[in-house]
Design a protein that fits this description.
Oligomer: single chain
Largest sheet: none
Mean pLDDT: 86
Strand content: under 5%
Order of helices and strands: HHHHHHHHH
Low-confidence stretches: none
Distance between the termini: 51 Å
Shape: globular
Helix content: over 70%
Number of strands: 0
Length: about 210
């Protein structure tokens, strides 16, 4: 006879799966993958294909380390500075909205390239991919997640989003040939619209949190 899993267990697994999908999708778009891809292609225009792939791996590793570190430092930073989660939601939501407007209008500034620096970390990993809005959202998410199960699920989903971005960078040359530079710009604008919706939701959550007190 097959033993059925307890209903509470199946409900918990369903909630963790929903959390995984929500975090994965949110951060995949927060990374502004198509803008990051355009920047990656422009900064590596004279690179060989093998050197470009090696750089893509380095960027992916740098983004993963930055994101996981920020995710688990959220609560400590709020405690140190005495910032409430709802106040941070409002601030980050406003910052994220400004980033989305810049993407939609195609005015997101490309940081200057320092030939002497390792561009895998600066400027590509930060601030192109992990910018101020992404940093703030990571801190909010880290403070939102309660318990080991939620933190583990959130971390895995975040790493899955980073991996998805890494695959795009590894396939950058093929994607550019397939999609074209003009269409990459259009996809960047669509990403900006999604970010605007995320910003509105984050700000609304902050307002509702204040009103609920």
């Amino acid at each position: 006879m097959t033993r059925r899993a307890p209903s509470g267990y199946s409900t918990g697994m369903h909630e963790q799966f929903q959390l995984f999908i929500a975090v994965w999708l949110k951060f995949f778009f927060l990374f502004t993958p198509f803008f990051a891809l355009s920047m990656f292609l422009s900064l590596t225009g004279d690179y060989t294909e093998s050197r470009r792939r090696r750089l893509a791996v380095m960027i992916t590793a740098a983004v993963a380390v930055l994101c996981v570190g920020l995710l688990f430092l959220g609560r400590q930073i709020f405690d140190i500075f005495g910032i409430t989660l709802n106040a941070f939601r409002l601030g980050v939501g406003g910052l994220l909205f400004l980033s989305s407007v810049a993407l939609v209008h195609g005015k997101k500034a490309a940081p200057e390239q320092n030939q002497e620096a390792d561009i895998a970390v600066v400027p590509l990993a930060m601030p192109v991919i992990v910018g101020p809005a992404t940093t703030g959202t990571l801190l909010v998410l880290g403070a939102d997640l309660d318990g080991f199960a939620q933190r583990a699920t959130g971390c895995l989903a975040l790493l899955a989003a980073v991996l998805g971005l890494g695959v795009m960078l590894l396939l950058a040359t093929k994607i550019e040939r397939l999609v074209g530079h003009r269409n990459l710009n259009i996809l960047s604008k669509l990403t900006g619209i999604i970010l605007a919706a995320l910003a509105a939701q984050m700000m609304m959550d902050g307002v509702l949190g204040f009103l609920a007190k």
